[in-house]
Amino acid sequence: MEWKIQYNNKKGDWDVLWIDSMVEPDTLMKMHFFQKISHFPGIYVLARKNLLGLHFNEMAKKFPNDYNFFPKTWLLPA
Description:
With 78 residues, the chain is mainly alpha-helical. The chain folds into two domains: 8-40, no CATH class; 42-72, no CATH class. The protein has three helices and two strands. The chain has helices at residues 25-30, 44-47, 49-62; strands at 16-17, 36-37. The protein has a two-stranded parallel sheet with strand order 1-2. The longest helix is centred in the C-terminal third of the chain and has 14 residues, at 49-62.
């Protein structure tokens, strides 16, 4: 297997796309089933600590027995 670096993902002949910004909807729509990307839409909800804490707290309110595994979290100034 031969690896090559390609700087233009518009051609569509790639297997893995490493991207450090938002993925364009056009790229997502044209992806083949075998192609993988390093980001996916909405990842910031889990990747940012403040949003992860916010969502954990919300889930803990709805499902207290299932979401008791993380430490108490505060979001300042709230």
